[in-house]
């Protein structure tokens, strides 16, 4: 969908910002460009929508050499989100979001209806936020409007240049997970620039790690963390990359343990067969848990003695979230539910199983590294 062929950019003062860059981004793929400040990420990005022209080489978007396209037309097919957002201060949120469809000749009512849909898509209520002005929003909300506006013309390609860089870490994490969910629905081809390796790892289908004007490694997040291609990359991803793996390793159904289960309306059992049991409602959705000592002496039904379970996550959530959730609720285990069937209980994740899952992920990488060594031997 996006292809760079031996692209070099030298600025007038002689700075080589991008040096003989070649890579490809597949349709529907989200590639993060990560590297320290000044390594050429923004330059790379701006060459895709021709805000900057390459000195050498060619860039293809959707099978077309962009040097042969009209820049204005090209930009209509490419959504662009930047950190400073660039919303019009004197226009409402709804008007800001409707700007592009409006420019493209969509009738006012239709453009506003589309804008309202997009605001909902990015987690803003058009009835609440639509008529506000940008200054009446929080930083995180402005960033969401920026994303909605970039999606308004339904472009196949999105360029995002440190879009979540200006918000605090908690909001950033929320924006990231919302964006991932959004991307799983809209499946745009995305180039996402960040200087934050954690963000790159979390969002990217693949990551391009930049050195000075060059890509040092272009691989899946787990491979970059598990098998850094060069000492530079190893240094950049950091000594705590084992910890970072937590955020790229999902909880799988096979990681779960099956504790005893009772139902809310069951008469109180005298024996649970364990120190505690999980409590489900009539539809097998998670309600909470019950302790064996409460059950042993009590009367009535399970409902009268059950406690709510706050430490819960959907299957597929990262091990990092699992770990954080355990710490937050001071819980020895986490209830894991089915994300598709609201709340259906699947099993529990224990610290021992969390550790096993992390090992599984690291071992998978070690194998990938061995495979690579074999490939290199064949080449040699
Ligand atoms: N218009 C410009 N003129 C000259 N040098 C520039 C210009 N824009 C960027 N640079 C230089 O090019 C290099 C790459 O910049 P940039 O692409 O903005 O990096 P990044 O986005 O990774 O921080 C830096 O050394 C920067 O100073
Ligand atoms: Mg930049």
Your description of this structure?
By secondary structure, the protein is α/β, with parallel strands linked by helices. Helices cover 38% and strands 23% of the residues. The chain has 14 helices and 17 strands. The chain has helices spanning 41-48, 71-76, 93-103, 108-121, 126-129, 139-151, 169-186, 197-203, 221-226, 231-237, 241-245, 292-297, 319-328, 351-379, and strands spanning 2-10, 16-25, 30-34, 56-61, 64-65, 78-82, 157-161, 189-194, 206-210, 215-219, 261-263, 276-280, 286-291, 307-308, 312-314, 334-337, 345-349. The strands form 4 sheets. It has a 6-stranded mixed sheet with strand order 6-7-8-3-9-10, with helices on both faces. A 4-stranded antiparallel sheet has the order 2-1-4-5, covered by helices on one side. Strands 11-12-13-14 form a 4-stranded mixed sheet. Helix 3 (93-103) runs parallel beside helix 6 and helix 4 (108-121) packs across helix 6 (139-151). It is globular. The two termini are 32 Å apart. The model has no long low-confidence stretch (mean pLDDT 88). It binds adenosine-5'-diphosphate and magnesium ion.
């Amino acid at each position: 969908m996006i292809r760079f062929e031996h692209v070099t950019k030298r600025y007038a003062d002689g700075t080589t910002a991008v040096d003989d860059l070649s890579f490809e981004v597949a349709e529907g793929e989200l590639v993060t460009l990560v590297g320290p400040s000044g390594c050429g990420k923004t330059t790379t990005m701006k060459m895709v929508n021709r805000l900057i022209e390459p000195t050498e080489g060619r860039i293809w978007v959707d099978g077309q050499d962009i040097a042969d396209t009209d820049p204005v037309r090209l930009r209509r097919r490419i959504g662009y989100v930047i950190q400073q957002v660039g919303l019009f201060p004197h226009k409402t949120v709804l008007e800001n979001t409707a700007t592009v469809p409006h420019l493209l000749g969509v009738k006012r009512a239709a453009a506003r209806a589309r804008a309202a849909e997009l605001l909902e898509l990015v987690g803003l209520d058009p009835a609440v936020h639509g008529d506000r002005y940008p200054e009446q929003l929080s930083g995180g909300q402005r960033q969401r409007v920026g994303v909605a506006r970039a999606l308004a013309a339904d472009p196949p390609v999105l360029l995002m240049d440190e879009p979540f860089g200006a918000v605090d870490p908690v909001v950033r994490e929320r924006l990231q997970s919302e964006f991932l969910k959004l991307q799983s629905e809209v499946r745009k081809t995305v180039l996402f620039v960040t200087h934050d390796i954690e963000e790159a790892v979390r969002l990217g289908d693949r990551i391009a790690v930049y050195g000075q004007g060059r890509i040092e490694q272009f691989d899946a997040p787990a491979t970059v963390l598990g098998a850094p291609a060069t000492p530079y990359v190893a240094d950049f991803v950091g000594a705590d990359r084992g910890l970072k793996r937590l955020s790229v390793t999902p909880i799988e159904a096979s990681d779960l343990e099956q504790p005893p289960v009772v139902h809310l309306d069951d008469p109180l059992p005298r024996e649970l067969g364990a120190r505690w049991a999980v409590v489900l409602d009539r539809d097998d959705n998670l309600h909470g848990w019950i302790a064996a000592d409460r059950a042993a002496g009590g009367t009535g039904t399970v409902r009268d003695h059950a406690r709510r379970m706050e430490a819960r996550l959907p299957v597929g959530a990262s091990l990092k979230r699992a770990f954080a959730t355990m710490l937050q609720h001071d819980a020895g285990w986490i209830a894991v539910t089915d994300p598709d069937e609201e709340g259906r209980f699947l099993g529990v994740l224990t610290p021992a199983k969390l550790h096993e899952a992390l090992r599984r992920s690291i071992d998978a990488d070690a194998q990938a590294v061995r495979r690579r060594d074999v490939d290199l031997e064949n080449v040699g």
